[in-house]
Design goal:
- The complex is a heterodimer.
- By secondary structure, chain A is of the alpha/beta class.
- Helices cover 39% and strands 13% of the residues of chain A.
- In chain A, strands 4-6-5-10-11-9-7-8 form an 8-stranded mixed sheet. A 3-stranded mixed sheet of chain A has the order 1-3-2, sandwiched between helices.
- In chain A, helix 4 links the parallel strand 2 (74-78) and strand 3 (116-121).
- In chain A, helix 5 (155-162) runs parallel beside helix 6, helix 9 packs across helix 11 (352-365) and helix 9 (304-319) packs across helix 12 (371-394).
- Chain A is globular.
- Chain B is of the alpha+beta class.
- Chain B has helices at residues 54-66, 164-180, 221-240, 286-295, 300-310, 315-321, 325-338, 341-358, 370-381, 387-398, 404-411, 419-432, 434-442, 445-462, 469-481, and strands spanning 4-15, 74-75, 78-81, 91-94, 104-109, 115-127, 131-133, 142-144, 151-157, 193-203, 213-218, 248-253, 258-264, 274-275, 282-283.
- In chain B, the strands form 4 sheets. In chain B, strands 5-6-9-1-10-11-12-13 form an 8-stranded mixed sheet. A 3-stranded antiparallel sheet of chain B has the order 4-3-14, with no helix packed on it.
- Classes of the chains: A alpha/beta, B alpha+beta.
């Protein structure tokens, strides 16, 4: 059986055509997780029994003619999404014992569309990290090379999809947490426009930047997932109330007339020449399909890393205050008084990177520093949005590298957070501006995938999915799978 | 005369009378089992998000309009970060830089009849915290989050009050205002209105404000007055002894009348305010504001003016009767049904208030309905009963013997006005008291006046008080002078 090699779109066709049952498909992936995830560590929780029940229910619904868009398709959820009755850890000791009493809107929508939840994927603790090494459950390995990181923070979702342990997974992206791991594992991942996907039930890291999105083998798969994930949610005040787009309808639209902008700032002299060349080659492929390539400039993007590492920790320092050992989650042993309860529960419950960011954020918001850090960072944010607005006057989509490097060795940057932060340079500006962007495989260096990033204007998810899909029709980078689990 | 001047500013937390909480759909009802009105949002479960209750916004705007304040078309929520077990998110969602209500004012009439304006600095929307319960758990603290997320407006005044009495007059005026416009149930004992008082003293003539202290969470007018007076004394004592005042937050125990320091300024938290990224700014259109303005009922101050004019009441009467909505409504009903506002005012402020006070009842619990009191007044006016009898009837109605007409009928209290019957009675009295009548006729004018009362008394006794006093007077006068 090679069912697991299929894309989500192909599996949907098999299910719709009655060639395979949801139960069969679910059992296939559960078996792969069972036999292969020991090495990868991409799942924190596998919901075997629940998945089988859901698969049987999906088959029953289909036989009654009640199949939703994702009926019978197994997927995995990043462990940042609350799942009713299932542990939701956020990769942290703090929530190791937390069984969520409710479903996140994304989880609910996927379930309602008939998707089967295989389990919850590993992640950097509270989504803070770019290597999946900060998880309480240990690092996730990159299926392309088990000595390397899969990227983060949605590293578990990325590794699981790349290793074909799940055909698709959900992720969240605050500063690149969908796109960077997608790039480092050779899959396609999309961060939608801020406000497109509800944040209800998605454990907050930095509320003004967090956005959920799909991670899968192809742009078409992402479109299929996204179609179900989006929509206005009265439970999220920042969720946008607008008429639904049809992401699947325009996938095949020819690229003639499209203008692709290459930002000078995304090709600095310091960038690995091979990554720059593969990105330019992607542009040439789009040109061959009729697109026009122009140069654009995003001068303020260079300020995005410092701005981000003020705003995101500031919001996080407040968002993570609720984890105090009082109502749920980790509580220290035998606290002597209230202060002791707070201090030890939080010191023992949070890992180093989370504590580092809480400290940075607390500092940035404190009296006397607020104007110099937080307010200034918000001004930079405005400048970055303005840069993009100007660039989108010249180009329909913006193309650049996703990450300045391929997957690096486990532990290589563990004690050097600033170097780790600097590598987020190409992804972060998009979050600060709230724009949609995707990463897709655009080549390989020494057998390791290289990601290429497409950034769209607000609400143009459909357009960047269309461009990515056309690219994937002409290339096969996205079809390449790691030689993991004896697949090659 | 004291050499010191007291300066007082207030911060008032007003619980808004919305059905549900400010950021969740949980009920705001009080008295339920602990934590039974705490939703996922109120418990600060991971991944939950706030959604603003528009009704709370409307109520805040109504307050602003009622104090003539500027309504900010754009206001924003911020997070005030601090750790406390009854603050589940680790921050309070409140407004700081951009409050919904800007500067306004409240006009007071003080007991001596003088007028005073207290300026409102601003009022902002925020959520209440839960409650920590220390009593029932030995060595532990219980947390009840039913109150967490109850909408509040915090009203901040300028330091415009100069005595405890002025501060209490303001507090009463504010209470009457927020209940009149229906944004607060006014139940002080439940904490629906809580006062923080900022007190400082300075030497008379000094312009610079003295160092102030803040006494928190006073929930009765009496405690507030006590706390201010004690604090003023304490500060003056310290200063006169050559000491200085520490800027601090104090707690006042109403039962012992003693206050103590809670925390000094140095211990104050750095709240690390920043705009709440989970909530959009609150935008208000001109139309929404006009609509809310039109929905406002008559305000206490407007009512006071109208009462004085429409019913020709004295300033004092108008102030008492317009002080709260229940009393106002009762008065207006009685005045209209009886057709005599002056008598209605006298009865309500006299007999009725005395009985209510004696039985510790509020006017809404009054056993005498407004139509009944109006009927009683009407009988008095049409001479069916005398004012003496009226008090009997009132008593009987209060005790549930029926309407005034029923009581008059059942007890046979109708005034005797039949002139034939009265003439007979007069003849009989003069015949039976011939000696006195003789003496009366022989007396001079001055003495006669004194003696006349005797005959009136005999007539009232004979009629059991039911004789029409005016007619009896005339008939007696005629008979004795003839």
């Amino acid at each position: 059986m090679t069912l697991h090699k299929h894309t989500l779109t192909e599996l949907k066709a098999l299910l719709d055509g009655g060639k395979v049952s949801a139960r069969e498909l679910t059992d296939t992936f559960l078996a792969r997780i069972e036999s292969l995830d020991g090495e990868l560590n991409s799942f924190v929780t596998v919901t075997t029994e629940q998945a089988r029940l859901e698969a049987d229910a999906a088959d029953a619904a289909r036989s009654k003619g009640e199949a939703g868009l994702l009926n019978g398709l197994p997927i995995a959820h990043k462990d940042i999404f609350c799942t009713d009755g299932v542990r939701t850890s956020c990769g942290s000791r703090m929530l190791d014992n937390f069984i969520s009493p409710y479903d996140a809107t994304v989880v609910k929508k996927m379930r309602a569309a008939g998707a089967i939840m295989l389990g919850k994927t590993n992640m950097d603790e509270f989504a803070m990290g770019s290597s999946n090494e900060t998880s309480f459950y240990g690092p996730v390995k990159n299926p392309w090379d088990l000595s390397r990181v899969p990227g983060g923070s949605s590293g578990g979702s990325a590794a699981a999809v790349a290793a074909r342990l799940a055909p698709a997974a959900t992720g969240t992206d605050t500063g690149g947490s969908i796109r960077q791991p997608a790039a480092l594992t050779g899959i396609t991942g999309l961060k939608p426009t801020y406000g497109t996907v509800s944040r209800w039930g998605m454990i907050a890291f930095a509320s003004s930047l967090d956005q959920a999105g799909p991670m899968a083998q192809s742009a078409a798969d992402c479109a299929l997932m996204l179609q179900t994930m989006v929509g206005h949610d009265v439970k999220d005040s920042t969720s946008l109330d607008r008429t639904a787009d049809d992401y699947l309808a325009d996938l095949d639209k020819p690229l003639a007339g499209l203008t692709v902008g290459l930002p000078e700032e995304f090709f600095p002299a310091s960038l690995d020449g091979r990554i720059a060349e593969l990105t330019r080659e992607t542009a040439r492929e789009l040109e061959r399909q009729g697109a026009k390539v122009v140069s654009v400039s995003l001068p303020s993007v260079k300020l995005s890393v410092p701005a981000y590492y003020v705003i995101a920790p500031a919001e996080a320092s407040s968002n993570l205050s609720r984890f105090d050992g009082v109502r749920y989650g980790y509580r220290c042993q035998d606290p002597v008084d209230l202060m002791d309860l707070y201090k030890r529960s939080r010191s023992e419950g949070f890992g180093d990177e989370v504590q580092r960011r809480i400290l940075v954020g607390t500092y940035a918001l404190s009296h006397g520093y607020y104007d110099a850090y937080y307010l200034r960072a918000q001004k930079v944010r405005r400048l970055i949005s303005d840069d993009f607005a100007r660039a989108f006057e010249k180009a329909d989509v913006i193309l650049g590298p996703t990450s300045p490097e391929v997957a690096f060795q486990l532990g290589a940057k563990k004690d050097d957070p600033v170097t780790m932060y600097m590598a987020d340079v190409f992804t972060i500006a998009v979050n600060l501006a709230g724009l949609p962007a995707l990463s897709m495989p655009g080549g390989a260096i020494d057998g390791l995938p290289v990601g290429v990033q497409l950034i769209g204007n607000y609400f143009r998810e459909g357009q960047i999915l269309n461009v990515a899909h056309r690219y994937q029709q002409a290339t096969d980078w996205h079809r390449q799978a790691p030689a993991f689990g004896g697949d090659k | 005369m004291s050499a010191w001047e007291t300066v007082i500013g207030l911060e008032i937390h007003v619980q808004l009378a919305t059905k549900t909480k400010i950021f969740s759909s949980a009920s705001t009802a009080v008295g339920a089992e602990p934590n039974s009105h705490a939703s996922l949002v109120d418990l600060a479960m991971p991944g939950t998000l706030p959604v603003l209750n528009r009704e709370a916004v409307n109520m805040a705007v109504k307050f602003g309009l009622a104090v003539g304040a500027e309504i900010n078309r754009h206001s924003a929520f911020e997070r005030k970060n601090y750790f406390y077990p009854d603050l589940p998110k680790g921050y309070q969602t409140t407004q700081l830089a951009e409050p919904i209500v800007g500067a306004g004012s409240v006009e007071l009439i003080l007991d001596d009849g003088s007028r005073k304006t207290v300026r409102i600095h601003h009022a902002h929307l925020e959520e209440d915290a839960g409650k920590s319960l220390h009593e029932d758990f030995h060595g532990m603290t219980g947390i009840d989050l039913n109150r967490a997320g109850t909408p509040l407006i915090e009203v901040v005044t300028e330091p415009d009050m100069r005595s405890a009495e002025e501060a209490v007059a303001f507090a009463r005026a504010l209470h009457s205002l927020v209940t009149a416009i229906g944004i607060c149930d006014g139940e002080m004992s439940q904490g629906s209105l809580r006062f923080d008082v900022n007190v400082s003293v300075r030497r008379k003539g000094e312009e610079k404000l003295g160092t102030r202290t803040e006494t928190k969470n006073l929930n009765s007018f009496r405690f507030m007055e006590m706390a201010i007076k004690k604090e003023v004394e304490r500060q003056i004592d310290i200063l006169e002894d050559g000491g200085s005042i520490t800027q601090e937050t104090r707690l006042f125990n109403g039962d012992t009348g003693v206050s103590r320091s809670m925390r000094s300024k140095e211990d104050a938290n750095d709240y690390r305010y920043f705009p709440c990224p989970d909530l959009l700014p609150v935008m208000l259109s001109e139309e929404q504001i006009i609509e809310l303005k039109n929905s406002l009922p008559e305000l206490p101050a407007q009512r006071l003016g109208r009462f004085a004019q429409q019913y020709s009441l004295s300033d004092y009467d108008a102030r008492i009767l317009s002080s709260d909505l229940a009393t106002s409504d009762y008065f207006e009903a009685v005045a209209e049904l009886s057709g005599d506002a002056k008598l209605a005012a006298n009865w309500i402020m006299g007999e009725l208030t005395a009985r209510l006070n004696a039985e510790e009842k509020s006017i809404s619990e009054c056993p005498m309905s407004a139509p009944d009191l109006a009927e009683l007044i009407a009988r008095l006016k049409d001479n069916t009963i005398s004012s003496k009898i009226a008090k009997q009837v009132f008593e009987a109605c209060w005790n549930g013997e029926g309407s005034p007409d029923q009581v008059i009928e059942a007890r046979g209290l109708k005034q005797v006005s039949d002139s034939g019957e009265l003439q007979k009675m007069v003849n009989k009295i003069i015949a039976e008291n011939a000696t006195q009548a003789e003496a009366y006729r022989a007396a001079d004018e001055a003495k006669r006046k004194k003696m006349f009362g005797f005959f009136v008394g005999q007539a009232m006794k004979a009629s059991q008080g039911k004789a029409n006093p005016q007619q009896i007077n005339e008939l007696l006068m005629k008979a004795l002078n003839s």
